[in-house]
Every structure is written in C-alpha cells, then in structure tokens.
Amino acid sequence: MKMSYKLFCLVAFLSIATFSGCSHVTKNDLSKSISATDSRGKVIKLNDVAKRVVVLFPSLLDEVYMLQAGDQVVGIPQQVYQMEDTYAFLSKLDSRIAAKTLPTPTYGGQSSNVESIIALQPDLVITFNTDQDNIEQLEGLDIPVFTCSSADDKSIMAELLGMGTLVGKQERAQEIVDYVDGELDRMQVPSIENAKSVYYAWSKGRVMSTSGKGSLIDMAIRLSGAENACPLPMEAPNISAETMYKWNPDLIILWNSKLSDVYDLKELADLPAVKNKQVFVMSPSFPFDPHTVKFLLFAKQVRHWSFPSYSEEQLKKEMQGAFEVMYGKKGLL
Fold first, then answer.
1. pTM assigned to the model
2. For strand 34-37 and strand 43-46, is the pairing parallel, antiparallel, or unpaired?
3. Helix (H, G, I), strand (E, B) or coil at 45
4. How many CA atoms lie within 13 A of 307 on its CB side?
5. What is the radius of gyration, based on Cα positions, of the chain?
6. What is the CATH classification number for the domain harbouring 277?
7. Domain span holding position 269
C-alpha cells in the first residue's frame, strides 16, 4: 500500500510537469501568432513572422523593400527584371535582383505558375485582390495570401501596415505611414478657384483611356491642388477626341508613354494643351508609382507642373527626403 502511494505521487508529479510544459509551449505559440486584415476584409493569421515571402506584383514588392524585409523575399514578379527603372532601383537594395537570381514564379501581367510558387515553400504570398484565380488555388492549398487593393490613400497605408505586421516590420511600417500622414496634412490647400484641370492618360500610348472620379489617380490629382479633367465616376473610361476637346484640360499627363503618342495624333492637334506644349510624361515612372505610398510623390510632381511657384528645385529636395524615409537609406534617388 505504501509503494502504491509513492507511485501515485510520482505519476501525479510527472503529470503536472508535463501539463505545465505543454501550457508553456502553447503560451509561446500564441505569443508568436500574428494577424492582419487584408483588402477583402479577411483576417490573415500566421503562427510566426513570415520568413519566406512571395510577391506577385512589382508595386507590392516595392513596398516590401520599403519595409526593409527584402531578405525575406523568395519569389518576385518577372516584370521586375523587364521594367528598366524598377530593376535599376531595386538592384540597389538586393544583390539577388541585380544578379537576376531571385526566382520569378510569374509571367507577364497577372499570369502566375502556382506550382512554382508552391515549390518556393512560402509562409506568405502577397498579391492584388484582382488576382482571384491564384488566390483561390493558393488558399485551397493552405498557403496564406494577403491581398491589397491600393484603392485610395487610406487603403494603401492600411495595407502597408498589414504587410508590416505579417513580416515583422510593424514599427517600420508605422514610421512610413506617420511620415506620409504628415506630408498629406502639409500639402492640403484651400479650394482653388479656377484650378488647373489635368487629364491623365493610361500607359503604352492609350491616350484615350483615362481615370475618372473616385479613382486612385483622381485622389492624387486632387491632392496636388489641381482638378481631374475627367468628370465621369468611372475607374477607367475610354473617351473620344470630341470629348477631350469638350473637357479641354490644361495639362495632359502620360504614364509609360511618349510625348509623340499625343503630339502625333492629328485629331488632337488643335487642343490647347497640345498647342501650348502642356503634355508631360511621368518618367522614370518608378518614383511616382501611385499604387504605393509614392502616390504622395505623384501628387507633388503634378503640383510642380500645375503651379510654377512649386519649383523643380523644391520638388527634387522633397523627393530626396521622401525616399530617405520610405526606404530608410540615403542617396537612392
């Protein structure tokens, strides 16, 4: 009977020790668990900071490097190697990009190779919410996917904070957001009577395709102090030359296009903005990508073209300061 009591005590002690050990592990696991809400309103949960990240769009990859989480990236969009200014800049931040050794599990546009993504064993995939086929396939395989919309300034900054959380760079993300918030406050101007109107043309010579009210581009143009020449509440309307004359913009801004794409169009030859040489190109485009927090720089560039008092010297100085904050390094621009 005495031996049985001792044996009982020993078993009880071991049971308590085992339970305490399990409780300790569970507590640690819970403390590492992190989550962020993406553009779909979906809460993305990870057991730990993502250490193997695949990014499927250049703009989103750019933001990961802003977060200084580039060493956690194991797969990038193929376009990064094809876009001259993007490749040149990101090569300064990652020798693997410079050497073109980072895998590219994507083709042009939104085409991705899901098998190649899986082979990279990602802890997290970052993509736009329009990438529906890939999202469904990857989540069906229990691979966490954080989506972005870049719909407006608020969503861009919320999504940057979400990415920062998942890659363990919350403080860095907050630093960038605080800076941009401060600059937005500083850029606010009273409503300007007879503000200049700006027509924005889509890339690759699509002069008659523009961005309407409520779009990301519309937000950036208004932030500059100018007005969007397109009054249509549409994301991407196509218009005619007749409509362009009706709107009669003061400036025309091109993205990844050439001045000749406008100046060679006979149907626009008599448009005042064309006759007055008020056609401008965002070139190189990388520093002004409006799908990132650099929408701020897009707006500053439009302000310079719209308001001569905002000088080129001031623009360059502010852009250099912005890049130092956004990337955490000097001498990148």
1. 0.87
2. antiparallel
3. strand
4. 20
5. 25
6. 3.40.50.1980
7. 191-327
